[in-house]
Write a structure and sequence with these properties.
- The structure holds 2 protein chains of 2 kinds.
- Chain A contains 2 helices and 6 strands; from the N terminus they run αβαβββββ.
- Chain A is an alpha+beta fold.
- In chain A, the strands form 2 sheets. A 3-stranded mixed beta sheet of chain A has the order 2-1-6, with helices on one face. In chain A, strands 4-3-5 form a 3-stranded antiparallel beta sheet, with no helix packed on it.
- In chain A, helix 2 links the parallel strand 1 and strand 2.
- The radius of gyration of chain A is 17 Å and the shape is elongated.
- The mean pLDDT of chain A is 93.
- By secondary structure, chain B is of the alpha/beta class.
- In chain B, helix 2 packs parallel to helix 5.
- Chain B is globular.
- Classes of the chains: A alpha+beta, B alpha/beta.
- At the A-B interface, helix 1, strand 5 and strand 6 of A face strand 1, helix 2, helix 6, helix 7 and helix 8 of B.
């Protein structure tokens, strides 16, 4: 629901980075989005194609990495990929797990064209 | 094998070879910055305001109509003699909720978001320009009724309280894991209606929350008959006491779940821009 404003922030960050590196244009933008981020990747994609027009990222490709939901268990010393609504350790059913992947909404990298 | 026709590239080494040869003039810059970094920056600023005023801030979230305002009315009636309380109300339209809170004799500021489905740190900061927080003990932020978007936005608050009313399904925590994982306390509200509803089991709701590895306290509450009110007030008072102890040692309280926390903390210099090639 807030993917449009999120993309607005994303583009501000990208434009600032392009300016800082004196880039002519942005070739691609890579973002990592997890199922527990509350962000819907397909809506981000749509919002991005609307908002990029007229910016230095006008021709940029948006690459979205859907990161898996992974929990780490301190008792079993294991890391397991789990469903977004089942974050217990699948081995010992402990609730002491730590989410180590799956809640990201991160601008990972930007590929810039610098002549 | 030569480097001319491309026969040195095999399915095995293709990713490495291609990654090592960036296109002429293209530089990849690693960023690793949260997409909501502007909001998060403002949230930290808000939190420092709150901490300077020593006011515990609670973000109340739930579906529309699950009893957030009724919870606040009951809470204020009980605590207004002993604590200084204020409320920030978030709704798409109307000032109805702020008027209900003001009728209880405490300050309330209404944020009308228009069409925005959640509060963000900037909206809360603007609200702080319209209300005095010095001398307050407790500030409630009643978020827009919505089980999706509000969970993604740090407002600078200290605790998340999520309501689940018995007129909703008891599987809401399984359907909205982002929201319920973020809960520092879950309140099952409108429990006075349980005798009339045969399809809501508080135990099922608790099990679904447990499945999210969330061991947070759960209170069954009714604003109508007052059940669970003592337990809720005890939780609030304990949180205020814990918060003040942290402030005494120059620390603050944060909601238990911090998005991106693991990843960002594992990456030193995450907010610096540096070329990777």
């Amino acid at each position: 629901m807030h993917e449009l404003s999120l993309c607005d922030d994303l583009l501000s960050q990208v434009v600032a980075i392009a300016l800082q590196h004196q880039a002519q244009s942005v070739e691609s933008i890579t973002i990592n989005i997890g199922a527990l981020s509350g962000i819907e990747p397909s809506l981000v994609d749509t919002a991005f194609s609307l908002l990029k027009a007229g910016t230095v990222a006008e021709l940029a490709e948006l690459i979205i990495h859907n990161t898996p939901v992974i929990v780490s268990c301190p008792h079993c010393n294991t890391q397991s990929e789990v469903a977004a609504n089942r974050l217990l350790c699948p081995e010992c059913q402990s609730t002491d797990t730590t989410l180590i992947s799956g809640d990201e909404m991160i601008l990972a990298s930007v590929a810039l064209c610098i002549e | 094998m030569c480097n001319t026709c491309g026969c040195n590239i095999t399915p095995g080494n293709r990713p490495f070879v291609l990654a090592e040869k960036p296109k002429r003039g293209v530089t990849t810059v690693s960023v690793l910055q949260n997409l909501l970094s502007q909001n998060n920056h403002q949230a930290e600023h808000n939190r420092s305001h709150f901490d300077a005023a020593k006011v515990l801030v609670i973000n109340l979230m739930s579906s529309p109509g699950s009893g957030k305002t009724a919870l606040l009315e009951t809470t204020i009636k009980r605590l207004r003699e002993s604590l200084k309380i204020a409320v920030i109300e978030g709704d798409l339209e109307t000032e109805n909720d702020a008027l209900r809170i003001q009728a209880q004799g405490v300050p309330a500021y209404q944020i009308t978001t228009g069409s925005a489905c959640h509060l963000d740190a900037h909206l809360v900061h603007n609200a702080l320009h319209h209300m005095a927080i010095d001398g307050l003990d407790l500030l409630f932020i009643e978020n827009v009724g919505n089980l999706v978007c509000p969970a993604s936005f740090d407002l600078g608050h200290h605790r998340n309280v999520v309501l689940l009313s018995v007129t909703e399904g008891d599987d809401k925590p399984a359907k909205y894991p982002v929201m319920f994982r973020a809960a520092d306390l879950m309140l099952i509200s409108k429990t006075d209606l349980l005798p009339y509803l045969d399809d809501f089991s508080p135990n099922n709701a608790k099990q679904h929350l447990h499945d999210l590895a969330n061991n947070t306290p759960i209170i069954e509450f009714s604003a109508k008959n007052g059940s669970g009110l003592d337990e809720w007030i005890t939780w609030l008072q304990a949180e205020i006491a814990a918060y003040r102890l942290l402030l005494d040692s120059q620390q603050t309280l944060r909601p238990k779940v911090q998005q991106d926390g693991q990843l960002l903390h594992a990456q030193p210099g995450h907010n610096k821009y540096y070329p990777v090639l």
